Each structure stands twice: as structure tokens, then as C-alpha cells.
């Protein structure tokens, strides 16, 4: 592992601690500020919308401006968003912070591109899941600490502590090395992404799978607090168990061919939905959150499957489009979950389970093995 991957790993680990401190409690704190389940769904829709619109331009810019520069900008944006949420004393101001934090998702395109270029002898799937491993190792610590702080000092205090940790994470990101930009051979140009049929076909599959696997998640903290009467400390513990699951799934599935890991990750989320639906005790919920680690892994392995389909010079933009597709599901999932929750708090789990099974079948049939695909190129006319 080179020096830059070490510093990047440290930055992701500390960021995982900070984000993990408040992420699982976000819907509960919105509820404390006066938002109804439907309103929470629409607020998270707004955050998802911000996440959806940024990866494409950030991927395009990172291909031309530089990946390190975009990573630094994203980390600084996260510090500002955390500070805004920490200082907010009203729902309106807090939502501004939530939306600004959604903007930080522009980090993913340059981050995936940076990791791919710095991977050395590692596969693309392994290096992208490496980022998931170190981030989620931090996310094991964050929810437990956040639950303890929230229980004794209030949920608002969590955001101040997380922002302080974000500052340390930002220091680490300044220490990574810059990377040269990639260029294609003018005599053998790659196909335009919007005419690359294999790439577009995979994106449609990725959208279906990402939406189905996210649907059972957004209102689960509220379900656990309101319907299952768990304390904030217990919910935080579940978040930490989820972090262990994320780390475990990223490590194990990252050693597999990306398509196989992508499918097995969906099986993990099936188990999560089934256990939240039928489970009646903390032990079952703990197993469910551990199995939810399949979601983090499948998102990364979905992105990894993009790499064989495109040219290196298109990598940032291609990852950006794929992340936009994934973020669209984060935008669409919460309003649907909020609507289902308002009808019956538990109905989002059987609905999500059916959707996940459908997505699994589609991806199993239509997703090709990476060794069978290569980037498409434009056929130029022969010169006389």
C-alpha cells in the first residue's frame, strides 16, 4: 500500500467516526425538531436530490482539474455542513446543514477515480471496498459514541463533536499526493458515455438494485424508537454493529469478482428487511444491522463494475454518472418510505423485500462478468 492510500485511509476512518455519530440519529433529531414522518421523508428527499446532482459535474471536473483538489474541496464542505447542523436551533437552519452535507457526495467520483489510479496490483473492486473497510471501521465507533452522547447530553451535542472530528479528517486529506490526469489516444478514442450501450444497460440495473435495497432503511431508526421502544443508546449500538457488518462485508465481498459480491450484498439486505419485519427482540435487530453491511459493499461493487466498461480518461465522469444513479435512489427512497410508514410503520419491510428479490433476479440474469467486457471505442475512418 502506498503512502497516499494510507493517509486517505486515515481520513476515511476518522470521517467514518464523525458521520457515524449522527447518521443513524438524523431522522430522530428531525422528529425532535418537529418534523413528521412524511416531512422527514421529504427532507431526506432534498438531501438525496443534492447528492444526485453533484457527482456528474464533480467527476467531469476531477478528470480535468485534479482528483486531490476535489477531495480537499469535499472535505472542507463537510466541515461547513457539520458546523451548520451543530449551530442550528431551528428545523429550517438544520435542514440547510442537511442539504449542504448532501452536497459533499461530490466526493465520490474523484474518490473512486483516485483509488482506482492508486490501486497498484489490487483489483478495482478490492481498492474501492478498501475505502469502505476503513470508513466503516470508524463507523463502528461513531454510532456507539453518538448514542452515549445523545443519551446524556442531547442529540444536538453529537453534531458539535462530529464536526471537530471532521477537522482532523481534513488534515489527513491534505497529505495525499496529487495524481496526473489521464488522456485517451486520439487515434483510438473511446465511445461517448451516452452511446456506450453496455455502460447504460448496467446503470439501469444498478438503479433498480440501489432503490430496492435502500427502501427499507430511511425510517428504520424511527421504527425502532417508536414501535420497538428502543433507547437512543440501543439504536446507537445497532449502528455500531452495522459498522462491523459494513467492514466485514466490504472485506469479504471485496475479495470476490465484483459481480458475485454485488449479488451477495443484495442477499444481506434481504436478510435485513426480513429480520426488521419479523424480528421482535434486540438480538434479531442486531443481526439485521450486521447483514445491512451488504448494502455498503454492493454500492461499491456496483461502481467497480463500471470500470471495465469505460476508458481511463472517462473514469471520473463515468463514476459520477453511476453515483448520480445511485443517489437518485437515496432521493426517491425516503418519500416512499415515509408514505409507507404513515400507512403502517412495518409495511416498508415486506414491500422492500419483494423489490430486493426482483432486483436480485434482474441483476443475476443481465449483469455480465467483468472479464467478458471491455471499453467500447469509436471506429474512425481509415486514412488514405
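Q: What amino acid sequence fits the structure above?
A:
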Amino acid at each position: 500500500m502506498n503512502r497516499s492510500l494510507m493517509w486517505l485511509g486515515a481520513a476515511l476512518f476518522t470521517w467514518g467516526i464523525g458521520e457515524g455519530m449522527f447518521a443513524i440519529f438524523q431522522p430522530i433529531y428531525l422528529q425532535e425538531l418537529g418534523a413528521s414522518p412524511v416531512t422527514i421523508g421529504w427532507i431526506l428527499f432534498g438531501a438525496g436530490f443534492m447528492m444526485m446532482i453533484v457527482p456528474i459535474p464533480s467527476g467531469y471536473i476531477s478528470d480535468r482539474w485534479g482528483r486531490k483538489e476535489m477531495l480537499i474541496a469535499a472535505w472542507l464542505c463537510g466541515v461547513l455542513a457539520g458546523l451548520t447542523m451543530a449551530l442550528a436551533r431551528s428545523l429550517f437552519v438544520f435542514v440547510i446543514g442537511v442539504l449542504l452535507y448532501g452536497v459533499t457526495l461530490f466526493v465520490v467520483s474523484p474518490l473512486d477515480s483516485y483509488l482506482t489510479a492508486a490501486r497498484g496490483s489490487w483489483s478495482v473492486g478490492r481498492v474501492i471496498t478498501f475505502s469502505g473497510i476503513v470508513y466503516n471501521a470508524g463507523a463502528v465507533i461513531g454510532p456507539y459514541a453518538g448514542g452515549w452522547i445523545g443519551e446524556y447530553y442531547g442529540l444536538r451535542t453529537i453534531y458539535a463533536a462530529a464536526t471537530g472530528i471532521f477537522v482532523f479528517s481534513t488534515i489527513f486529506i491534505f497529505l495525499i499526493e496529487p495524481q496526473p490526469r489521464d488522456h485517451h489516444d486520439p487515434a483510438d478514442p473511446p465511445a461517448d458515455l451516452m452511446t456506450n450501450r453496455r455502460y447504460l444497460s448496467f446503470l439501469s440495473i444498478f438503479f433498480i438494485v440501489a432503490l430496492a435495497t435502500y427502501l427499507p432503511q430511511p425510517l428504520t431508526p424511527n421504527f425502532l424508537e417508536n414501535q420497538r421502544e428502543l433507547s437512543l443508546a440501543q439504536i446507537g449500538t445497532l449502528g455500531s454493529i452495522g459498522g462491523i457488518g459494513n467492514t466485514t462485508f466490504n472485506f469479504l465481498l471485496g475479495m470476490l469478482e465484483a459481480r458475485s459480491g454485488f449479488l451477495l450484498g443484495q442477499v444481506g439486505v434481504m436478510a435485513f428487511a426480513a429480520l426488521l419485519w419479523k424480528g421482535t427482540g434486540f438480538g434479531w435487530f442486531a443481526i439485521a444491522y450486521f447483514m445491512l453491511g451488504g448494502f455498503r459493499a454492493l454500492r461499491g461493487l456496483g461502481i467497480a463494475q463500471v470500470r471495465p466498461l469505460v476508458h481511463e480518461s472517462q473514469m471520473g465522469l463515468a463514476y459520477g454518472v453511476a453515483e448520480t444513479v445511485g443517489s437518485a435512489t437515496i432521493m426517491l427512497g425516503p418519500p416512499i418510505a415515509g408514505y409507507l410508514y404513515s400507512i403502517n410503520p412495518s409495511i416498508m419491510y415486506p414491500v422492500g423485500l419483494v423489490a430486493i428479490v426482483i432486483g436480485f433476479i434482474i441483476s443475476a440474469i443481465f449483469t455480465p462478468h467483468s472479464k467478458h467486457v471491455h471499453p467500447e471505442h469509436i471506429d474512425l475512418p481509415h486514412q488514405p
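Q: And what stands out in the fold?
A: Residues 44 and 334 are 6 Å apart (CA to CA).
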